[in-house]
Amino acid sequence: MAIPRAARTQRRTRIQEAKEEQILEAALDVFSVRGFRGSTIDQIAEVAGMSKPNLLYYFRTKEAMHRALIERVLETWLEPLKAFNADGDPQAEFKSYIRRKLEMARDFPRESRLFANEVLQGAPHVEDVLKGPLKELVDEKAEVIRSWARAGKILPCDPHHLIFAIWSTTQHYADFDVQVRSVLGPERDDERRFEEAALFLEALFVRGIIAGPRQPD
Known about the structure:
Elements: H1 14-34, H2 41-48, H3 52-58, H4 62-82, H5 90-107, H6 109-120, H7 127-150, H8 159-175, H9 177-184, H10 190-209
């Protein structure tokens, strides 16, 4: 876990916490647009509205800020997958997961682009997380999907590629937001656009994997 320098002090004040959040918000703005390599501490300090020495009191390096943001993003991003319930109804579980992922694409577009930029660069700062906690969680939920297939609740499928497909289709609405809005036009505002996307993706995935007798009309 990337711990801000001020967080290591015995008495961490509300002012320190607020400053850390101010810095991370600015870093998120910069990193999500410029990527890690194209971002500088000077740029982040300018967006944060503070001096470079003041910023460096809280985070000594650009890497520390980036790591803190990535870890926060992963914690938030993976929460819907953690909630995937083996005892639940597959239709309901997949629909809920798709909607929650779309809500995150709608509500956290900067975070999605930050993570996408990191992965496109080869994930140099979070490869350990991807190969460790992320892989463990995905493997665990893949076994849930396999158990549903063995029970005849869904059609046999490769669970890892199914999860990848849901990730790619839902996060598209954050990572390629400009393209989506340009193609759909201004009359399809955020609320309508995401509701249409949710209904389509629910139909696409649920009808594609639910076993015949359980498939909705």
